[in-house]
Amino acid sequence: MCAAGKYSSRGPALIPRMKTKHRIYYITLFTVVLLGLIATGMFQFWPHSIESTAEWTLEKGSVHDAPLIRLPVSSPIPERGDLSCRMHTCFDVYRCGYNPKNRIKVYIYPLQRFVDELGVPISSTGLSREYNELLSSISDSDFYTDDVTRACLFIPSIDVLNQNSLRIRETAQALAVLPRWDKGMNHLLFNMLPGGPPDYNTALDVPRDRALLAGGGFSTWTYRQGYDVSIPVYSPLSADVVLSERQPGPRHYFILSSQTAIHREYRAELERLKEENGEALLLLDKCSNLSQGAAIARKRCYKGQVYEYPEVLQESSFCVVLRGARLGQAALSDVLQAGCVPVILADSYILPFSEVLDWKRASVVIPEEKLSEMYTILKSIPHRQVEEMQRQARWFWEAYFSSMKAIGLTTLQIINDRIYPYAARTYEQWNNPPVVKWSSVNSPLFLPLIPPRAPGFTAVVLTYDRVESLFRVITEISKVPSLAKLLVVWNNQNKSPPEESLWPKVGIPLKVVRTKENKLSNRFFPYDEIETEAVLAIDDDIIMLTSDELQFGYEYFNYLYTYKMPGDIKNWVDAHMNCEDIAMNFLVANITGKAPIKVTPRKKFKCPECTAIDGLSLDQTHMVERSECINKFATVFGTMPLKVVEHRADPVLYKDDFPEKLKSFPNIGSL
Amino acid sequence: MERCSRGHMQAKKRYLILVSAGACLVLLFYLGGLQLPAARSRHGRSRIEQPWPHYSDPLQVFLPWDQTDTEEYNLHISPRQKRDVNRSVYKSKRCRMDSCFDFSPCQKNGFKVYVYPQQKGEKISESYQNILSIIEGSRFYTSDPGQACLFVLSVDTLDRDQLSPQYVHNLKTKVQSLPLWNDGRNHLIFNLYSGTWPDYTEDLGFDIGQAMLAKASISTENFRPSFDVSIPLFSKEHPRTGGERGYLKYNTIPPFRKYMLVFKGKRYLTGIGSDARNALYHVHNGEDVVLLTTCKHGKDWQKHKDARCDKDNAEYDKFDYKEMLHNSTFCLVPRGRRLGSFRFLEALQAACVPVMLSNGWELPFSEIIDWNTAAVIGDERLLLQIPTTVHSIHQDKILSLRQQTQFLWEAYFSSVEKIVLTTLEIIQDRVLEHGSRSSLMWNSHPGGLFALPQYSGYLGDFPFYYATLGIKLHPKFTAVIHAVSPLVSQSQPILKLLVAVAKSQYCAQIIVLWNCDKPLPAKHRWPATSVPVIVIEGENKVMSSRFLPYENILTDAVLSLDEDTVLSTTEVDFAFTVWQSFPERIVGYPARSHFWDSNKERWGYTSKWTNDYSMVLTGAAMFHRYYHYLYTHYLPTSLKNMVDQLANCEDILMNFLVSAVTKLPPIKVTQKKQYKETMMGQSSRASRWADPDHFAQRQTCMNKFASWFGTMPLIHSQMRLDPVLFKDQVSILRKKYRDIERL
């Protein structure tokens, strides 16, 4: 017991006083332990990165390491896609089940190399760069699961992006041998270039049972609305070319056509338009005099003059996207990237992501037959609309076209929205570019309602301890015919509210709520007692209020104040015992985009006898603090939501030369 | 003590060192031991995070750069041929606008609808009669089949249930014998019921050829996208025009009602559609989820009666349908024998958010309405999850769903007229593709019927979307002065008015509409102003021409003025600043009111000074230029002709229109009540205001207008807007609009 204290004070001299034998023994032991610890530490922390890079290269792997699967000739072939498939008939929703996060789980099959009996691969390209990118980004997203039993959606690793490189029959056989294929239920295939010569089907020709198809180039006859997803044809230029965003506005050319493979009938039609309208049109084709090579994809020519593609697209207001052999065109992506408004001429084409994107705000769709009238049609579009479309086009590209990742995740989100429709992204979320999201206001009370008089309003009186003044306020406002309920918020924890018998007699329900803390924010707490929509908030030192003068707040905003107000503002208000009203104004303005309405000429509402001692608003520092508040709140909201208006509301006959007794609110202004 | 402690200490030291060494060893093992599982788990984790190996091989691109080029040149079919092939291949069940609709008559004459003349002796149900008369009264109607873009049959196709008394026999021959039938091309067929017990097919019992269907309870399988229109099932009693408003009078926070989810209806014991309703009792808890079914329906229900029937029937009778409907947050709308039911519209009107349980139903007007904003689309297969789902919906979302039910009800469903017009507008949007409404216009206030895309494709040109899109208003206004008397003296009110208005800092230009029979006065007769004055000579000098959408009006705001209006610059400035806060409403000076005259059982008009008002006179009012367009193109010729013949009531009509669109009253600013020299008794010149008939006419107008709108759109207001320091006892120098007080 006693030793413990001494021992600790003598601690440092411990080793020298030991016997040599013991000392060596202990030093050796310690060294060993120390070395062991260091080695462990090294092993634990330092080699970690070495090891993980080794692991990385190993994981990175090579497509050639993927297992080889030989398909017998007799391997079963799935049925052709069923055109009547819908989510409720061909999709097993039980696999997705209830999910608190409302998010589907997606499984990706590991890569396999399929060959036929003779060893010929089913696809000439195998896994393409784009499909690899797509699968990687899905596997990195929170849609992904590696647990095949928990998956709601399955994505084969068989690349069918481009039908040209596929052997149809063998690809179908490969799909059918996937372990969870089960008639293609809940399987999703990505295809951007469907069909092949000579008639170019608008959907993938590979038989695929009930599998969902995310296809680029659907026509209205092959697209199963609400089941398939229409996706864009990815433009490889998206990754290589950086086009900075241009401010919307007029461009050097009015219409530009940059596609190289346009049917000669249409090219002739365009030439005719060019003749009629001259310089406004720029009609480009591929450059015949340049040597073949990848660089030619980045050049366009008009009569020997060479233009950089896709940069030239930025020089035009409208860009033509004509159908080719297929309906979906990679050029659409280039055009959007350049912020040029696409003029889409592809009859019966289902536009990319049309289930959620409002293309009317970003493009002009013209029937192919009307190609010759294109110029007149486009000329009739107001300038400001063109600007909005330019901005919208660029936004669509950035959000939904710019990478295989964007395309893949948008597709999954659309399917997700169908499975959990009550948690679906809204039209605004899909369609409004960030700049609109910042500047717009969507009031949560958007329905124009004129509340009937019957329910009246609830008056909320915030008080600390000025009982006399409080009683006067209560007596006064209880005379108001439309007052339905009185709620007194007793903000003093040290003192109990007066006994029931002492309160003035009023003809309406009166409730006293005691708060746990003296906070000004208590005024805006959405008390359960408030049953009316309109709330009148007053201070207890307002006795000059005559019963006709009413200032309305909304119960809803009380709720917002408590639950939606940025956190630091509420704390600030509670700490400084000031500005709760300014905060409320900020919030309402921010959420409705509207200014408050001042009612009647009242400007001062404090009683003359309430002196600076306890009248909160009269405090010397009060005004200074209030200016501070405004600055503080403006920084928190990021903008200044308050609006200045120059009007106030008066009763219709206010100050009119008219018998007072015929007026509805004769008392206003009598003070 | 000392020795003892020393020996004690030696032992203690050794002991301690051993313990610490041991501890170190344990730690070492622990760390080392951790190493392995850690490595393993990291290995495992990295497989979870990055399961798809980022293949680093030089992979090929999916689209070789020259592929499209070479392909297109292989293409021999000309696009024209391809279109022809599509047209011949995709018929009947695969009809689309591209293959089964002839656009050419529509492009030539606009979107005109022809209704076949009714044959004598042909019985037509009341509902179908309503549909036909609404089309005939609409602005799309043409009596000339040569002009028509769309044809509507006069034989009743609404009820195709063979067992129904309304069923029309021999429809096939009747339709085939129509001279303009042309295999149904450009025809629209309305249908509410099809098929009958036991399989309720969606076949109409005759060959509809290439005709479009506007059909209730249509399934996604039979629905031809962008060709057919899914309409709601409505009852015989559904009002023809006008229609009741939604039941939501005010919002409650939190938005929960007595019940969370309710249903009361028949339970089919056998046959199609019985599954969903038979399973409902699993979810019923008798508290906040009340799902009641009865087996009592049909003559022989006792035959199929099951064990639960008696208990269910007893429970069923305890609750009142109406009470439940109005006091529930969500209403279950399961399929019946057919996919749609009346319950859908009932729930919508009652602001009870519908929870759809009808797999494969193409919801009404699904082409344009985003139902996720007003309903919860459930899945019959996941019935048991429905309570959890509705409970998980956040109260903000409930509030918004509920308001949207009311908006949609009033915009598209409250009357047969709205249902029919919405159907026609949807088809018109397809026909005139580059002048069609965006989804935003259909799904936000005031809805597609009041937002005409032919006016402008730019949303900022409408008064409704400034806030949602964060667009700024044009900072100035255009004044339109309606001149009817010749210019004789330099002291005429019109000249004073011109000067006063031109002085306003917000005035962009003044348009004088010369509707006087005398020729235009010479240019120099007009006073010199700082803003451009444009004189337009009225073509037919009628009253309605003052609301024509003149191309010269480039600002959002229009200040509409009579020639003898007396107005000061301050008043104009103030009205404009107020209007900027309320761009969708009329802001004006003198106000009038309407009332229901219960003795005469008609609407009355009053210009007395009352405590409330519902109209402001457009002889001096500020409103959005879109209302010019709407007045001219939305209102029927009959009403406009009436206004022109009487040379009166144009302001009442404008107020009706704007209130019908906004569902809000106009706004009166300042004390001004008289605004004419004639009214102030300073001039003895006869004016239309002095005419005793004038007042009686306005009374008549009101009633005529109210009957066309089907309801009284005007709303009373008690509020007048004054400048903030108006008549306050502060120095006049501090007031911005000081002149207003002097008037």
UniProtKB/TrEMBL annotation, chain A:
Pfam families: Exostosin_GT47, Glyco_transf_64. One of its GO terms (biological process) is heparan sulfate proteoglycan biosynthetic process. The keyword Ligase does not apply. Keywords: Coiled coil, Disulfide bond, Endoplasmic reticulum, Membrane, Transferase, Transmembrane, Transmembrane helix. GO terms for cellular component: endoplasmic reticulum membrane. Residues 101-381 form the Exostosin GT47 domain. It is a single-pass type II membrane protein. Residues 555-654 form the Glycosyl transferase domain. The keyword Transmembrane helix applies. The chain crosses the membrane at residues 24-46. GO terms for molecular function: glycosyltransferase activity. Residues 256-283 form a coiled coil. It is found in: Endoplasmic reticulum membrane. Belongs to the glycosyltransferase 47 family. This is Exostosin glycosyltransferase 2. It comes from Nothobranchius furzeri (Turquoise killifish).
TrEMBL record, chain B:
It is found in: Endoplasmic reticulum membrane. It catalyses: 3-O-{[(1->4)-beta-D-GlcA-(1->4)-alpha-D-GlcNAc](n)-(1->4)-beta-D-GlcA-(1->3)-beta-D-Gal-(1->3)-beta-D-Gal-(1->4)-beta-D-Xyl}-L-seryl-[protein] + UDP-N-acetyl-alpha-D-glucosamine = 3-O-{alpha-D-GlcNAc-[(1->4)-beta-D-GlcA-(1->4)-alpha-D-GlcNAc](n)-(1->4)-beta-D-GlcA-(1->3)-beta-D-Gal-(1->3)-beta-D-Gal-(1->4)-beta-D-Xyl}-L-seryl-[protein] + UDP + H(+); 3-O-{alpha-D-GlcNAc-[(1->4)-beta-D-GlcA-(1->4)-alpha-D-GlcNAc](n)-(1->4)-beta-D-GlcA-(1->3)-beta-D-Gal-(1->3)-beta-D-Gal-(1->4)-beta-D-Xyl}-L-seryl-[protein] + UDP-alpha-D-glucuronate = 3-O-{[(1->4)-beta-D-GlcA-(1->4)-alpha-D-GlcNAc](n+1)-(1->4)-beta-D-GlcA-(1->3)-beta-D-Gal-(1->3)-beta-D-Gal-(1->4)-beta-D-Xyl}-L-seryl-[protein] + UDP + H(+). Its main location: endoplasmic reticulum. Residues 108-392 form the Exostosin GT47 domain. This is Exostosin glycosyltransferase 1. Belongs to the glycosyltransferase 47 family. The chain crosses the membrane at residues 15-36. InterPro entries: Exostosin, Exostosin_GT47, GT64_dom, Nucleotide-diphossugar_trans. One of its GO terms (cellular component) is endoplasmic reticulum membrane. GO terms for molecular function: glucuronosyl-N-acetylglucosaminyl-proteoglycan 4-alpha-N-acetylglucosaminyltransferase activity; metal ion binding; N-acetylglucosaminyl-proteoglycan 4-beta-glucuronosyltransferase activity. Glycosyltransferase required for the biosynthesis of heparan-sulfate. Gene3D superfamilies: Spore Coat Polysaccharide Biosynthesis Protein SpsA, Chain A (3.90.550.10). Pathway: Protein modification; protein glycosylation. The gene is EXT1. One of its GO terms (biological process) is ossification. It comes from the Eukaryota. Keywords: Disulfide bond, Endoplasmic reticulum, Glycoprotein, Glycosyltransferase, Manganese, Membrane, Metal-binding, Signal-anchor, Transferase, Transmembrane, Transmembrane helix. Signal peptide: none annotated. The keyword Ligase does not apply. Residues 477-726 form the Glycosyl transferase domain. It is a single-pass type II membrane protein. Its cofactor is Mn(2+).
